[in-house]
Design a protein that fits this description.
Elements lengths: L3 H10 L2 H5 L6 E3 L2 E4 L11 E4 L4 E4 L5 E2 L1 H9 L3 H12 L18 H22 L1 H13 L4 H6 L3 E3 L5 H8 L4 H6 L3 E4 L2 E4 L4 E7 L5 E8 L8 E3 L15 H11 L2 E4 L2 H9 L5 E3 L7 H8 L4 E6 L3 H16 L3 E6 L6 H7 L2 H10 L2 E2 H9 L8 H15 L5 H15 L3 H26 L5 H8 L7 H18 L3 E7 L5 E7 H11 L7 H17 L12 H11 L9 H5 L10 H33 L5 H22 L8
Parallel strand pairs: 12-13, 12-14, 14-15
Antiparallel strand pairs: 1-2, 2-3, 3-4, 4-5, 6-9, 7-8, 9-10, 10-11, 15-16, 17-18
Helix pairs in contact: 3-4, 5-6, 11-14, 16-17, 17-18, 17-19, 21-26, 22-26, 26-27
């Protein structure tokens, strides 16, 4: 286990914007930072980071918390994995207490599998650099590809021995579980026993966005082997449709350049990176998917598709362009000279020539489609032109933004000498067909609700139920967290009916009121926060700030939900528009009293509801219960009076 001292140091040093900024493109928004949700597909940012509070909040998915919570939610890391990731980023040495074996009972399956993959990564890398076979075969191959030693190490390239069970033996000797080796596909089982999946191949580790090795690809160096590449099967750690090769190494450059180059192969990415073009990724092992596009969208909306100029490459490029357009990306295409792919071209020219080519030869997708679908010799062929137009219309119909779509329609019309209105008409036909299909699908899925469901839909929401109670508890929590240490003025009415003004912290007043009326919270998390407030005040005489809760990855999620604000007024709002707004801080008394009165009223309503039940029972059985019935009626009158007072609340609160 990681020592508490290390955990405290990690939380003292980590800045949530540093961690989140590696996965989401953030822009300034007042005192906060905002970006597109990494959990959804949205056009308007609903993801906010508060540097001052050291928390994030995603209003589209409801997720929130601290830097550790973010990594656990987004990258499916365990708590220790997230802590170690942050520690590595900040150069903090992780001190662990007790024995920590990869397959220990206290370690989750994911952690165990991650440990196996890490061992495999180190094993293959060591083979490449330290063994005779690795140097003579694997390292020689990479150097023939003109990969420099720093590049080879940056991408963690390795070598698998041409031996049936060299890796299996090494992994078992290191204490790893055989079942885990099989789960990850590093070892297979056949008629003659278990054997290494990767044998006699150079190895390309596949990393997720956080840099953790989640899978491997192995390339054969034998000309008679028909299977050029072998890839790890999908596992608890690896979903090939949600991974982009090179994204971990290139994400910073993608953000800086505000552009992502999308290629097909591992070596394409490596050669481009080595040439200084580090904003390249590859959809290796699978055709481009929606999830991969969403990964890119975290960092930029601008994509240049780099594909081979052969027919298969062109077909893949066109399919990829459609997916990118559908996800709202800005798309361009670069085709390389005959006989070249991104890998070979990057190795054959200087960095300056490469960057000039990528910029100058970058075509709008309209130009690319026309070039491919309607080459010069077919431009006068009506049938070819009609087919090209229909294909273009299908792609333009995928663009959801009407302004962008209109711009592309105007361009296509001009290039092909056809009235834009004709293209708009055809696009609208496609859109209407899609809308009709969606309507039919919804009708097919619709089932008439039963009588009970219909009655439930017609009934009003319960005003005094658990959900209503929780809403009131949340508001009290929010005020405590945001304004707890702020000082408020209260008027006390003394015995001689003279008013006396006192000043005290908001939290002190609210906790006193909750205790005075015996109000307990139904939420375990909120009860825990209340206790932390009381404990700190007892020991230190002061109340906690939001930052005191950020260290707890569970509590931080609840706190983020309460204190995050999706909208803030511009600093120039009042000066520019002469519209003045009142803040909670300017009316602390009302801010603190309102939620307290509401929860007190809620408690009174609950008591009245319980009392009505007892009155009904006593009325049904009067034998010897006249006195009890009288007391219950008197209590009901008292509660109704209290209910009336609370309902009519509007001014000074008498302590």
């Amino acid at each position: 286990m990681i020592s508490q001292q290390t955990i405290d140091r990690i939380f003292d040093e980590v800045r949530v914007e540093d961690i989140v900024g590696e996965f989401v493109q953030l822009k300034k928004a007042g005192s906060n930072l905002k970006g597109l949700s990494p959990w959804g597909n949205e056009k308007t940012p609903s993801f906010f980071v508060s540097p001052s509070k050291n928390i994030f909040k995603d209003f589209s998915s409801g997720k929130g918390g601290n830097a550790v919570t973010f990594l656990m939610e987004l990258e499916s890391m365990t708590y220790p994995e997230a802590l170690k990731y942050i520690a590595a980023k900040y150069g903090i040495e992780v001190e662990e207490t007790g024995e920590n074996k990869p397959d220990g009972e206290e370690v989750s399956l994911r952690e165990s599998l991650a440990a196996v993959n890490n061992f495999a990564f180190e094993h293959f890398e060591k083979n490449l650099w330290e063994s005779t076979e690795g140097k003579q075969i694997g390292l020689s191959y990479f150097r023939e590809r003109q990969f420099t030693d720093p590049t080879i190490k940056t991408f963690g390239l390795g070598y698998a021995f041409d031996d049936n069970n060299a890796f299996l033996k090494a992994a078992l000797e290191a204490g790893h579980n055989e079942d885990h080796l099989l789960k990850l596909g590093l070892v297979k089982e056949g008629n003659y026993g278990k054997y290494d999946f990767f044998r006699g191949r150079v190895i390309f580790p596949i990393r997720n966005v956080s840099g953790r090795t989640i899978a491997f690809a192995g390339r054969t160096l034998k000309s008679d082997n028909k299977v050029k590449y072998l890839n790890s099967p999908e596992s608890e750690l690896y979903n090939k449709s949600k991974v982009l090769y090179g994204l971990f190494e290139g994400k910073r450059s993608i953000i800086q350049k505000d552009l992502c180059l999308l290629t097909e192969g591992y070596t394409d990415v490596i050669s481009l990176h080595q040439a200084g073009v580090e904003y390249a990724v590859a959809s290796s092992g699978t055709s481009l998917t929606e999830d991969q596009i969403k990964l890119i969208k975290r960092y930029t909306k601008n994509v240049s598709v780099l594909y081979d100029g052969d027919s298969a490459g062109v077909k893949a490029a066109m399919r990829g362009i459609d997916l990118l357009l559908q996800e709202g990306m800005q798309v361009k295409v670069v085709l390389f000279p005959d006989g070249h792919d991104p890998d070979s071209y990057a190795r054959s020219v200087t960095r300056e020539v490469l960057e000039d080519y990528l910029q100058n030869e970058s075509k709008d997708f309209i130009d690319f489609f026309i070039q491919v679908l309607l080459p010069e010799e077919k431009k006068t062929d009506p049938a070819a032109k009609t087919a090209a137009l229909r294909r273009l219309v299908e792609s333009m119909a995928l663009i959801s933004d009407q302004i962008s779509r209109s711009v592309y329609v105007e361009k296509a019309g001009k290039e092909l000498n056809i009235a834009p209105q004709v293209l708009h008409t055809e696009i609208n036909k496609i859109l209407r067909q899609k809308n009709r299909k969606r309507s039919y699908d919804r009708e097919d899925d619709y089932e008439a609700p039963g009588l009970a469901a219909q009655l439930a839909q017609q009934s009003l929401p319960e005003k005094d139920g658990p959900e209503a109670q929780l809403i009131k508890e949340k508001e009290i929590m929010r005020v405590l967290l945001v304004h707890g240490n702020a000082e408020m003025k209260l008027e006390l009415e003394t015995d001689d009916s003279k008013g006396e003004e006192i000043i005290l912290p908001v939290a002190e007043y609210m906790l006193h009121e909750l205790s005075l009326d015996g109000i307990n919270f139904t939420s375990e998390a909120f009860s825990q926060v209340i206790q932390i407030f009381r404990d700190k005040y007892t020991v230190l005489g002061s109340f906690p700030e939001v930052s005191d809760f950020v260290k707890d990855h569970i509590l931080s999620a609840a706190v983020a939900e309460l204190v995050a604000e999706p909208h803030t007024l511009s600093e120039n709002w009042e000066a520019k528009h002469r519209i003045f707004t009142e803040s909670e801080a300017e009316h602390l008394k009302r801010t603190a009293c309102d939620p307290l009165i509401r929860i007190k009223l809620q408690q009174v309503l609950n008591l009245i509801k319980d009392l009505d039940g007892k009155l009904k029972e006593s009325a049904a059985d009067k034998d010897g219960k006249e006195e009890e019935l009288t007391l219950l009626i008197q209590e009901k009158m008292r509660l109704n009076s209290l209910k009336s007072q609370l309902s009519n609340y509007f001014g000074t609160v008498i302590l």
